[in-house]
Amino acid sequence: MDHYKFRVVKNHLVQFLVYLALFLALVPLFSILYEVVVRGFSTISIEFFIKPTPTVGEVGGGVANAIQGTLITIGLASLIGVPIGLMSGIFLSEYGESKLSVVVRFLHDVLMGIPSIVIGVFAYALITLSIGFSVIAAAFALSVIMIPIVTRTTEEALKLVPMSIREAAIALGIPRWKATVTVVFSGAKKAIVTGLLLSIARIAGESAPVLVTMGFWRWWFAGFDRPVANLALDIFIFAMSPFKNWLTLAWGSALVLILLVLGISVAARVLTKGRY
Amino acid sequence: MAVKFDIQNLNAWFGSMHVLKNINMKIEENAVTAIIGPSGSGKTTFLRCLNRMHEITPGARVSGKVLFNGINIYDDGVDPVMIRRKIGMVFQKPNPFPMMSIYDNVAAGLKLNGIRDKKILDAAVRRSLELANLWDEVNGALNRSGASLSVGQQQRLCIARALAVEPEVLLMDEPTSALDPIAAAKIEALIRKLAKNYTVVIVTHNMQQAARVSDYTAFFYLGELIEYGPTKQIFENPKHELTKRYITGEFG
Q1: Do residues B230 and B223 touch, judged by C-beta distance below 8 A?
Q2: Ordered structural domains, chain B, with CATH
Q3: H/E segment holding residue B184
Q4: Whole-model pTM?
Q5: Which member of B84, B93, B96 has the closest CB to residue A172?
Q6: Which segment of A219-228, B38-47, B121-130 scores lowest on mean pLDDT?
Q7: Which one of A97, A102, A172 makes the best mutation probe of the B interface by having the most chain B beta carbons within 10 Å?
Q8: Of A2-11, A57-66, B165-174, where does mean pLDDT reach its minimum?
Q9: Which domains occur in chain A, in start order?
Q10: Closest partner CB to B108 (pick from A164, A172, A176)
Protein backbone atom coordinates (compact mmCIF):
# COMPACT_ATOMS: atom_id res chain seq x y z
CA MET A 1 0.00 0.00 0.00
CA ASP A 2 2.88 2.36 0.81
CA HIS A 3 4.37 1.67 -2.55
CA TYR A 4 1.06 2.49 -4.15
CA LYS A 5 0.86 5.84 -2.33
CA PHE A 6 4.36 6.66 -3.47
CA ARG A 7 3.29 6.06 -7.06
CA VAL A 8 0.26 8.29 -6.65
CA VAL A 9 2.44 11.09 -5.29
CA LYS A 10 4.93 10.60 -8.11
CA ASN A 11 2.13 10.77 -10.63
CA HIS A 12 0.82 14.05 -9.21
CA LEU A 13 4.31 15.51 -9.11
CA VAL A 14 4.99 14.73 -12.76
CA GLN A 15 1.58 16.03 -13.74
CA PHE A 16 2.29 19.26 -11.86
CA LEU A 17 5.65 19.69 -13.61
CA VAL A 18 4.08 19.13 -17.01
CA TYR A 19 1.42 21.78 -16.40
CA LEU A 20 4.03 24.14 -15.00
CA ALA A 21 6.14 23.76 -18.15
CA LEU A 22 3.08 24.38 -20.30
CA PHE A 23 2.28 27.52 -18.33
CA LEU A 24 5.85 28.82 -18.60
CA ALA A 25 5.81 28.20 -22.35
CA LEU A 26 2.55 30.09 -22.77
CA VAL A 27 3.54 33.15 -20.72
CA PRO A 28 5.76 34.78 -23.38
CA LEU A 29 3.31 33.88 -26.16
CA PHE A 30 0.36 35.52 -24.45
CA SER A 31 2.29 38.52 -23.19
CA ILE A 32 3.52 39.21 -26.73
CA LEU A 33 0.06 38.80 -28.18
CA TYR A 34 -1.44 40.97 -25.45
CA GLU A 35 1.08 43.75 -25.91
CA VAL A 36 0.81 43.71 -29.70
CA VAL A 37 -2.98 43.60 -29.74
CA VAL A 38 -3.42 46.34 -27.14
CA ARG A 39 -0.81 48.69 -28.53
CA GLY A 40 -1.42 47.86 -32.16
CA PHE A 41 -5.17 48.09 -31.96
CA SER A 42 -5.14 51.73 -30.91
CA THR A 43 -3.17 52.68 -34.04
CA ILE A 44 -5.50 50.92 -36.40
CA SER A 45 -7.93 53.05 -38.39
CA ILE A 46 -9.25 53.09 -41.93
CA GLU A 47 -6.44 55.42 -42.87
CA PHE A 48 -3.96 52.88 -41.55
CA PHE A 49 -5.12 50.35 -44.14
CA ILE A 50 -5.38 52.61 -47.18
CA LYS A 51 -2.42 55.01 -46.87
CA PRO A 52 1.25 54.30 -47.51
CA THR A 53 4.16 54.98 -45.18
CA PRO A 54 4.14 58.62 -43.99
CA THR A 55 7.24 60.75 -44.45
CA VAL A 56 9.09 61.90 -41.37
CA GLY A 57 7.11 64.60 -39.60
CA GLU A 58 3.89 63.74 -41.41
CA VAL A 59 0.92 62.90 -39.19
CA GLY A 60 -1.06 59.69 -39.74
CA GLY A 61 -0.27 57.50 -42.69
CA GLY A 62 -0.51 53.74 -42.84
CA VAL A 63 0.98 50.45 -43.92
CA ALA A 64 -1.13 49.73 -47.01
CA ASN A 65 1.97 49.71 -49.22
CA ALA A 66 3.70 47.30 -46.85
CA ILE A 67 0.74 44.91 -46.90
CA GLN A 68 0.78 45.04 -50.70
CA GLY A 69 4.55 44.60 -50.79
CA THR A 70 4.59 41.73 -48.30
CA LEU A 71 1.92 39.86 -50.24
CA ILE A 72 3.82 40.36 -53.49
CA THR A 73 7.10 39.23 -51.95
CA ILE A 74 5.60 36.19 -50.24
CA GLY A 75 3.66 35.29 -53.36
CA LEU A 76 6.70 35.53 -55.58
CA ALA A 77 8.85 33.57 -53.12
CA SER A 78 6.17 30.85 -52.92
CA LEU A 79 5.98 30.73 -56.71
CA ILE A 80 9.67 29.81 -56.78
CA GLY A 81 9.93 27.87 -53.53
CA VAL A 82 6.76 25.78 -53.34
CA PRO A 83 7.08 23.80 -56.60
CA ILE A 84 10.75 23.06 -55.97
CA GLY A 85 10.08 22.12 -52.35
CA LEU A 86 7.10 19.88 -53.20
CA MET A 87 8.99 18.15 -55.99
CA SER A 88 12.03 17.44 -53.86
CA GLY A 89 9.75 16.23 -51.06
CA ILE A 90 8.11 13.81 -53.49
CA PHE A 91 11.52 12.70 -54.69
CA LEU A 92 12.76 11.99 -51.17
CA SER A 93 9.64 10.12 -50.10
CA GLU A 94 8.61 8.27 -53.28
CA TYR A 95 11.78 7.65 -55.20
CA GLY A 96 13.55 5.83 -52.59
CA GLU A 97 16.70 5.32 -50.73
CA SER A 98 19.42 6.06 -53.22
CA LYS A 99 22.74 7.72 -52.39
CA LEU A 100 21.40 10.83 -54.06
CA SER A 101 18.44 11.03 -51.68
CA VAL A 102 20.71 10.72 -48.65
CA VAL A 103 22.81 13.61 -49.97
CA VAL A 104 19.75 15.71 -50.85
CA ARG A 105 18.22 15.14 -47.41
CA PHE A 106 21.47 16.10 -45.69
CA LEU A 107 21.86 19.26 -47.78
CA HIS A 108 18.31 20.32 -46.95
CA ASP A 109 19.04 19.92 -43.26
CA VAL A 110 22.16 22.04 -43.67
CA LEU A 111 20.22 24.63 -45.65
CA MET A 112 17.60 24.79 -42.92
CA GLY A 113 20.28 25.64 -40.39
CA ILE A 114 21.93 28.44 -42.36
CA PRO A 115 21.21 31.85 -40.78
CA SER A 116 18.81 33.82 -42.94
CA ILE A 117 21.17 36.81 -43.15
CA VAL A 118 23.71 34.54 -44.90
CA ILE A 119 21.07 33.53 -47.42
CA GLY A 120 20.30 37.23 -47.82
CA VAL A 121 23.94 38.00 -48.61
CA PHE A 122 23.99 35.10 -51.07
CA ALA A 123 20.95 36.54 -52.89
CA TYR A 124 22.54 39.97 -52.74
CA ALA A 125 25.68 38.70 -54.47
CA LEU A 126 23.74 36.68 -57.00
CA ILE A 127 20.90 39.03 -57.93
CA THR A 128 21.01 42.41 -56.22
CA LEU A 129 24.49 43.15 -57.52
CA SER A 130 23.37 42.65 -61.11
CA ILE A 131 19.83 44.07 -61.17
CA GLY A 132 19.81 46.23 -58.04
CA PHE A 133 17.73 46.24 -54.86
CA SER A 134 14.52 44.57 -55.98
CA VAL A 135 11.57 42.46 -54.98
CA ILE A 136 12.94 39.70 -57.23
CA ALA A 137 16.11 39.48 -55.15
CA ALA A 138 14.16 39.44 -51.89
CA ALA A 139 11.73 36.80 -53.15
CA PHE A 140 14.63 34.66 -54.28
CA ALA A 141 16.29 34.88 -50.86
CA LEU A 142 13.02 34.01 -49.11
CA SER A 143 12.39 31.09 -51.46
CA VAL A 144 15.77 29.63 -50.51
CA ILE A 145 14.66 29.79 -46.87
CA MET A 146 11.37 28.18 -47.82
CA ILE A 147 12.58 25.27 -49.92
CA PRO A 148 14.09 23.06 -47.19
CA ILE A 149 11.07 23.55 -44.91
CA VAL A 150 8.62 22.61 -47.64
CA THR A 151 10.77 19.70 -48.78
CA ARG A 152 11.16 18.11 -45.39
CA THR A 153 7.56 18.57 -44.27
CA THR A 154 6.31 17.23 -47.61
CA GLU A 155 8.59 14.23 -47.31
CA GLU A 156 7.43 13.49 -43.76
CA ALA A 157 3.78 13.96 -44.71
CA LEU A 158 4.03 11.60 -47.68
CA LYS A 159 5.86 9.00 -45.63
CA LEU A 160 2.94 8.90 -43.21
CA VAL A 161 0.62 7.69 -45.99
CA PRO A 162 0.53 3.89 -45.58
CA MET A 163 2.25 1.81 -48.25
CA SER A 164 -1.02 -0.12 -48.66
CA ILE A 165 -2.70 2.97 -50.14
CA ARG A 166 0.05 3.32 -52.76
CA GLU A 167 -0.17 -0.39 -53.55
CA ALA A 168 -3.95 -0.19 -53.90
CA ALA A 169 -3.55 2.57 -56.47
CA ILE A 170 -0.73 0.87 -58.35
CA ALA A 171 -2.67 -2.41 -58.42
CA LEU A 172 -5.51 -0.59 -60.20
CA GLY A 173 -3.21 -0.03 -63.15
CA ILE A 174 -2.47 3.58 -62.35
CA PRO A 175 1.03 4.81 -63.26
CA ARG A 176 3.24 5.50 -60.26
CA TRP A 177 3.45 9.28 -60.75
CA LYS A 178 -0.33 9.55 -61.08
CA ALA A 179 -0.85 7.47 -57.97
CA THR A 180 1.49 9.84 -56.15
CA VAL A 181 -0.07 13.12 -57.21
CA THR A 182 -3.64 11.97 -56.71
CA VAL A 183 -4.20 9.25 -54.14
CA VAL A 184 -1.04 9.63 -52.05
CA PHE A 185 -1.14 13.41 -52.12
CA SER A 186 -4.77 13.59 -51.06
CA GLY A 187 -3.94 11.43 -48.06
CA ALA A 188 -1.14 13.78 -47.06
CA LYS A 189 -2.82 17.03 -48.04
CA LYS A 190 -3.39 18.41 -44.57
CA ALA A 191 0.14 17.81 -43.35
CA ILE A 192 1.61 19.22 -46.58
CA VAL A 193 -0.50 22.36 -46.31
CA THR A 194 0.60 22.75 -42.70
CA GLY A 195 4.20 22.62 -43.90
CA LEU A 196 3.52 25.23 -46.57
CA LEU A 197 1.91 27.51 -43.99
CA LEU A 198 4.83 27.11 -41.63
CA SER A 199 7.22 28.11 -44.38
CA ILE A 200 5.07 31.09 -45.43
CA ALA A 201 4.75 32.28 -41.83
CA ARG A 202 8.49 31.93 -41.48
CA ILE A 203 9.34 34.05 -44.54
CA ALA A 204 6.64 36.61 -43.77
CA GLY A 205 8.50 37.37 -40.57
CA GLU A 206 12.00 37.53 -42.06
CA SER A 207 13.55 40.97 -42.05
CA ALA A 208 17.32 40.45 -42.36
CA PRO A 209 17.42 38.95 -45.88
CA VAL A 210 14.85 41.54 -47.00
CA LEU A 211 17.01 44.35 -45.71
CA VAL A 212 20.08 43.07 -47.56
CA THR A 213 18.39 42.35 -50.90
CA MET A 214 15.69 44.99 -51.17
CA GLY A 215 16.11 47.59 -48.46
CA PHE A 216 13.56 49.93 -46.97
CA TRP A 217 10.96 51.32 -49.36
CA ARG A 218 8.30 53.85 -48.46
CA TRP A 219 6.27 53.73 -51.65
CA TRP A 220 3.94 51.40 -53.53
CA PHE A 221 4.94 48.57 -55.84
CA ALA A 222 6.80 50.07 -58.80
CA GLY A 223 7.94 47.05 -60.81
CA PHE A 224 9.62 43.74 -60.10
CA ASP A 225 13.09 45.20 -60.55
CA ARG A 226 12.39 47.76 -57.80
CA PRO A 227 11.93 47.20 -54.09
CA VAL A 228 8.55 46.98 -52.37
CA ALA A 229 7.65 47.79 -48.80
CA ASN A 230 7.71 44.93 -46.31
CA LEU A 231 5.92 44.61 -42.97
CA ALA A 232 8.68 42.80 -41.11
CA LEU A 233 11.31 45.27 -42.26
CA ASP A 234 8.97 48.18 -41.50
CA ILE A 235 8.68 46.98 -37.92
CA PHE A 236 12.45 47.01 -37.66
CA ILE A 237 12.92 50.44 -39.27
CA PHE A 238 9.96 52.07 -37.51
CA ALA A 239 10.91 50.68 -34.12
CA MET A 240 14.49 51.91 -34.45
CA SER A 241 13.40 55.39 -35.49
CA PRO A 242 13.07 58.30 -33.05
CA PHE A 243 9.76 59.49 -34.56
CA LYS A 244 6.66 59.06 -32.49
CA ASN A 245 4.39 58.46 -35.47
CA TRP A 246 6.66 55.69 -36.82
CA LEU A 247 6.91 54.09 -33.38
CA THR A 248 3.12 53.80 -33.27
CA LEU A 249 3.10 52.41 -36.80
CA ALA A 250 5.57 49.73 -35.71
CA TRP A 251 2.98 48.31 -33.28
CA GLY A 252 0.30 48.48 -35.93
CA SER A 253 2.53 46.72 -38.44
CA ALA A 254 3.27 43.98 -35.93
CA LEU A 255 -0.43 43.38 -35.40
CA VAL A 256 -1.13 43.37 -39.13
CA LEU A 257 1.73 40.92 -39.75
CA ILE A 258 0.38 38.54 -37.13
CA LEU A 259 -3.15 38.84 -38.51
CA LEU A 260 -1.87 38.34 -42.05
CA VAL A 261 -0.10 35.10 -41.19
CA LEU A 262 -3.14 33.98 -39.20
CA GLY A 263 -5.40 34.87 -42.13
CA ILE A 264 -3.33 32.92 -44.66
CA SER A 265 -3.30 29.98 -42.30
CA VAL A 266 -7.07 29.98 -41.73
CA ALA A 267 -7.82 30.50 -45.44
CA ALA A 268 -5.59 27.62 -46.50
CA ARG A 269 -7.17 25.33 -43.93
CA VAL A 270 -10.67 26.17 -45.07
CA LEU A 271 -9.74 25.72 -48.73
CA THR A 272 -8.11 22.32 -48.22
CA LYS A 273 -10.68 21.01 -45.80
CA GLY A 274 -11.73 17.58 -47.00
CA ARG A 275 -15.22 16.29 -46.68
CA TYR A 276 -14.17 13.54 -44.30
CA MET B 1 -10.84 -25.37 -69.72
CA ALA B 2 -8.45 -22.73 -70.91
CA VAL B 3 -5.21 -21.89 -69.19
CA LYS B 4 -5.06 -18.30 -67.88
CA PHE B 5 -1.57 -18.34 -66.43
CA ASP B 6 1.28 -20.60 -67.47
CA ILE B 7 4.08 -20.09 -64.96
CA GLN B 8 7.48 -21.41 -66.00
CA ASN B 9 10.60 -21.60 -63.82
CA LEU B 10 9.52 -18.64 -61.71
CA ASN B 11 12.08 -17.52 -59.13
CA ALA B 12 11.82 -14.48 -56.88
CA TRP B 13 14.21 -12.76 -54.51
CA PHE B 14 14.20 -10.04 -51.89
CA GLY B 15 17.78 -8.84 -51.99
CA SER B 16 19.78 -12.05 -51.49
CA MET B 17 16.84 -13.98 -50.01
CA HIS B 18 15.52 -16.55 -52.45
CA VAL B 19 11.79 -16.65 -51.67
CA LEU B 20 10.35 -18.52 -54.66
CA LYS B 21 12.19 -21.47 -56.12
CA ASN B 22 11.53 -22.66 -59.62
CA ILE B 23 7.74 -22.62 -59.64
CA ASN B 24 5.98 -24.29 -62.56
CA MET B 25 2.20 -24.34 -62.65
CA LYS B 26 -0.79 -23.58 -64.83
CA ILE B 27 -3.81 -21.66 -63.54
CA GLU B 28 -7.22 -22.36 -65.06
CA GLU B 29 -9.46 -19.68 -66.44
CA ASN B 30 -12.75 -18.87 -64.65
CA ALA B 31 -11.90 -21.02 -61.66
CA VAL B 32 -10.75 -20.37 -58.12
CA THR B 33 -7.21 -21.43 -57.31
CA ALA B 34 -6.19 -21.38 -53.66
CA ILE B 35 -2.59 -21.00 -52.52
CA ILE B 36 -2.01 -22.52 -49.08
CA GLY B 37 1.05 -23.06 -46.93
CA PRO B 38 2.61 -21.95 -43.67
CA SER B 39 3.91 -18.43 -43.08
CA GLY B 40 7.06 -17.63 -45.02
CA SER B 41 6.35 -20.16 -47.75
CA GLY B 42 6.20 -17.53 -50.50
CA LYS B 43 2.42 -17.49 -51.10
CA THR B 44 2.06 -13.72 -51.12
CA THR B 45 5.22 -13.23 -53.15
CA PHE B 46 3.91 -15.72 -55.70
CA LEU B 47 0.64 -13.81 -55.94
CA ARG B 48 2.45 -10.50 -56.35
CA CYS B 49 4.57 -11.95 -59.15
CA LEU B 50 1.41 -12.56 -61.18
CA ASN B 51 0.65 -8.85 -61.67
CA ARG B 52 4.18 -7.49 -61.33
CA MET B 53 3.53 -5.98 -57.90
CA HIS B 54 6.55 -7.84 -56.51
CA GLU B 55 8.99 -5.57 -58.29
CA ILE B 56 7.76 -2.34 -56.65
CA THR B 57 9.41 -3.45 -53.40
CA PRO B 58 13.00 -2.13 -53.33
CA GLY B 59 15.50 -4.93 -53.83
CA ALA B 60 12.95 -7.35 -55.26
CA ARG B 61 13.86 -9.43 -58.32
CA VAL B 62 12.17 -12.03 -60.53
CA SER B 63 13.33 -14.54 -63.11
CA GLY B 64 11.40 -17.00 -65.27
CA LYS B 65 8.20 -16.59 -67.24
CA VAL B 66 4.60 -15.87 -66.40
CA LEU B 67 2.51 -16.36 -69.52
CA PHE B 68 -0.79 -14.52 -69.20
CA ASN B 69 -3.14 -15.36 -72.09
CA GLY B 70 0.00 -16.71 -73.77
CA ILE B 71 2.05 -13.52 -73.38
CA ASN B 72 4.99 -13.37 -70.97
CA ILE B 73 4.26 -10.44 -68.65
CA TYR B 74 7.98 -10.12 -67.91
CA ASP B 75 8.94 -9.61 -71.57
CA ASP B 76 10.66 -6.34 -72.44
CA GLY B 77 8.12 -3.90 -73.77
CA VAL B 78 5.28 -5.20 -71.62
CA ASP B 79 3.99 -2.30 -69.55
CA PRO B 80 3.35 -3.42 -65.95
CA VAL B 81 0.67 -0.71 -65.68
CA MET B 82 -1.35 -2.40 -68.45
CA ILE B 83 -0.84 -5.81 -66.83
CA ARG B 84 -2.21 -4.55 -63.52
CA ARG B 85 -5.28 -3.17 -65.24
CA LYS B 86 -6.07 -6.70 -66.49
CA ILE B 87 -5.07 -8.43 -63.26
CA GLY B 88 -6.69 -6.80 -60.25
CA MET B 89 -5.68 -7.28 -56.64
CA VAL B 90 -7.38 -7.34 -53.25
CA PHE B 91 -5.20 -7.01 -50.18
CA GLN B 92 -5.13 -8.59 -46.76
CA LYS B 93 -6.22 -5.46 -44.92
CA PRO B 94 -9.04 -3.51 -46.55
CA ASN B 95 -7.42 -0.37 -47.94
CA PRO B 96 -10.05 1.99 -49.35
CA PHE B 97 -8.71 5.42 -50.27
CA PRO B 98 -9.36 7.28 -47.01
CA MET B 99 -10.06 10.74 -48.43
CA MET B 100 -12.58 9.51 -51.01
CA SER B 101 -16.29 8.75 -50.98
CA ILE B 102 -17.63 5.27 -51.71
CA TYR B 103 -18.43 6.39 -55.24
CA ASP B 104 -14.97 7.88 -55.83
CA ASN B 105 -13.28 4.80 -54.42
CA VAL B 106 -15.01 2.56 -56.95
CA ALA B 107 -14.56 5.06 -59.78
CA ALA B 108 -10.91 5.79 -58.91
CA GLY B 109 -9.36 3.34 -61.35
CA LEU B 110 -11.47 4.64 -64.22
CA LYS B 111 -11.18 8.32 -63.34
CA LEU B 112 -7.42 8.17 -62.98
CA ASN B 113 -7.21 6.46 -66.33
CA GLY B 114 -8.93 9.42 -67.93
CA ILE B 115 -12.61 8.46 -68.05
CA ARG B 116 -14.69 11.55 -67.28
CA ASP B 117 -18.10 10.67 -68.72
CA LYS B 118 -20.50 10.71 -65.77
CA LYS B 119 -22.84 8.16 -67.37
CA ILE B 120 -20.07 5.63 -67.91
CA LEU B 121 -18.77 6.17 -64.36
CA ASP B 122 -22.23 5.88 -62.80
CA ALA B 123 -22.90 2.65 -64.66
CA ALA B 124 -19.49 1.20 -63.76
CA VAL B 125 -19.88 2.11 -60.08
CA ARG B 126 -23.30 0.50 -59.91
CA ARG B 127 -22.25 -2.61 -61.82
CA SER B 128 -19.12 -3.08 -59.68
CA LEU B 129 -20.94 -2.56 -56.39
CA GLU B 130 -23.65 -5.01 -57.46
CA LEU B 131 -21.03 -7.55 -58.46
CA ALA B 132 -19.36 -7.10 -55.08
CA ASN B 133 -22.70 -7.64 -53.26
CA LEU B 134 -22.45 -4.18 -51.72
CA TRP B 135 -24.91 -2.14 -53.77
CA ASP B 136 -27.95 -2.82 -51.56
CA GLU B 137 -26.05 -1.76 -48.46
CA VAL B 138 -24.62 1.52 -49.78
CA ASN B 139 -27.18 2.59 -52.38
CA GLY B 140 -28.21 6.14 -51.52
CA ALA B 141 -25.11 6.72 -49.42
CA LEU B 142 -22.49 6.74 -52.15
CA ASN B 143 -21.19 10.11 -51.00
CA ARG B 144 -20.23 8.81 -47.60
CA SER B 145 -16.59 8.23 -46.83
CA GLY B 146 -15.28 4.81 -47.81
CA ALA B 147 -13.63 4.62 -44.42
CA SER B 148 -17.01 4.95 -42.67
CA LEU B 149 -18.05 1.43 -43.71
CA SER B 150 -17.55 -1.65 -41.55
CA VAL B 151 -14.35 -3.59 -42.19
CA GLY B 152 -16.22 -6.31 -44.07
CA GLN B 153 -17.96 -3.74 -46.25
CA GLN B 154 -14.64 -1.99 -46.83
CA GLN B 155 -13.19 -5.22 -48.17
CA ARG B 156 -16.13 -5.64 -50.55
CA LEU B 157 -15.64 -1.98 -51.53
CA CYS B 158 -12.03 -2.83 -52.38
CA ILE B 159 -13.25 -5.77 -54.46
CA ALA B 160 -15.71 -3.45 -56.24
CA ARG B 161 -12.88 -0.98 -56.85
CA ALA B 162 -10.76 -3.72 -58.40
CA LEU B 163 -13.68 -4.94 -60.54
CA ALA B 164 -14.50 -1.46 -61.86
CA VAL B 165 -11.53 -1.41 -64.24
CA GLU B 166 -12.85 -4.69 -65.73
CA PRO B 167 -9.95 -7.02 -65.04
CA GLU B 168 -9.86 -10.63 -66.19
CA VAL B 169 -8.21 -11.91 -63.05
CA LEU B 170 -8.63 -11.12 -59.36
CA LEU B 171 -5.71 -11.85 -57.07
CA MET B 172 -6.70 -11.99 -53.40
CA ASP B 173 -4.15 -11.98 -50.62
CA GLU B 174 -5.82 -13.43 -47.51
CA PRO B 175 -8.89 -11.25 -48.15
CA THR B 176 -10.78 -12.42 -45.05
CA SER B 177 -8.04 -12.62 -42.44
CA ALA B 178 -8.95 -9.22 -40.98
CA LEU B 179 -12.69 -10.00 -40.95
CA ASP B 180 -15.15 -11.64 -38.58
CA PRO B 181 -16.67 -15.00 -39.65
CA ILE B 182 -19.93 -13.51 -40.96
CA ALA B 183 -18.15 -10.90 -43.08
CA ALA B 184 -15.74 -13.62 -44.22
CA ALA B 185 -18.63 -15.86 -45.28
CA LYS B 186 -20.00 -13.03 -47.43
CA ILE B 187 -16.64 -12.65 -49.17
CA GLU B 188 -16.47 -16.40 -49.75
CA ALA B 189 -19.92 -16.41 -51.33
CA LEU B 190 -18.82 -13.50 -53.47
CA ILE B 191 -15.70 -15.36 -54.61
CA ARG B 192 -17.83 -18.31 -55.79
CA LYS B 193 -20.07 -15.90 -57.70
CA LEU B 194 -17.13 -14.10 -59.31
CA ALA B 195 -15.56 -17.38 -60.46
CA LYS B 196 -18.23 -17.67 -63.16
CA ASN B 197 -16.65 -14.81 -65.10
CA TYR B 198 -13.28 -14.18 -63.52
CA THR B 199 -10.16 -16.12 -62.77
CA VAL B 200 -9.56 -15.90 -59.03
CA VAL B 201 -6.31 -16.73 -57.26
CA ILE B 202 -6.60 -16.58 -53.48
CA VAL B 203 -3.92 -16.89 -50.84
CA THR B 204 -5.31 -18.19 -47.58
CA HIS B 205 -4.15 -19.39 -44.19
CA ASN B 206 -7.52 -20.92 -43.58
CA MET B 207 -7.66 -24.45 -44.95
CA GLN B 208 -11.41 -24.78 -44.53
CA GLN B 209 -11.73 -21.67 -46.64
CA ALA B 210 -9.52 -23.13 -49.34
CA ALA B 211 -11.61 -26.29 -49.29
CA ARG B 212 -14.87 -24.34 -49.48
CA VAL B 213 -14.11 -21.80 -52.18
CA SER B 214 -11.48 -23.22 -54.50
CA ASP B 215 -11.49 -25.54 -57.46
CA TYR B 216 -7.73 -26.06 -57.38
CA THR B 217 -5.28 -25.88 -54.52
CA ALA B 218 -1.54 -25.37 -54.53
CA PHE B 219 0.52 -26.12 -51.43
CA PHE B 220 3.68 -24.03 -51.01
CA TYR B 221 6.42 -24.76 -48.51
CA LEU B 222 9.63 -22.77 -48.03
CA GLY B 223 9.37 -21.19 -51.47
CA GLU B 224 8.64 -24.40 -53.33
CA LEU B 225 5.47 -25.69 -54.90
CA ILE B 226 5.02 -29.03 -53.14
CA GLU B 227 1.72 -30.19 -54.55
CA TYR B 228 -0.92 -28.85 -56.90
CA GLY B 229 -4.18 -30.32 -58.08
CA PRO B 230 -7.97 -30.26 -57.79
CA THR B 231 -8.95 -29.11 -54.31
CA LYS B 232 -10.87 -32.31 -53.57
CA GLN B 233 -7.86 -34.44 -54.34
CA ILE B 234 -5.43 -32.27 -52.32
CA PHE B 235 -7.61 -32.40 -49.23
CA GLU B 236 -8.87 -35.97 -49.49
CA ASN B 237 -5.98 -37.75 -51.04
CA PRO B 238 -2.75 -35.75 -50.87
CA LYS B 239 0.15 -37.47 -52.62
CA HIS B 240 2.92 -35.74 -50.74
CA GLU B 241 3.71 -36.44 -47.10
CA LEU B 242 4.25 -32.71 -46.32
CA THR B 243 0.88 -31.77 -47.76
CA LYS B 244 -0.81 -34.43 -45.69
CA ARG B 245 0.90 -33.24 -42.50
CA TYR B 246 0.03 -29.60 -43.23
CA ILE B 247 -3.66 -30.13 -43.98
CA THR B 248 -4.10 -32.37 -40.96
CA GLY B 249 -2.69 -29.54 -38.85
CA GLU B 250 0.56 -31.20 -37.79
CA PHE B 251 2.45 -27.99 -38.51
CA GLY B 252 1.67 -24.56 -39.82
Answers
A1: no
A2: 3-247 (3.40.50.300)
A3: helix B181-194
A4: 0.80
A5: B84
A6: A219-228
A7: A172
A8: A57-66
A9: 68-271 (1.10.3720.10)
A10: A172
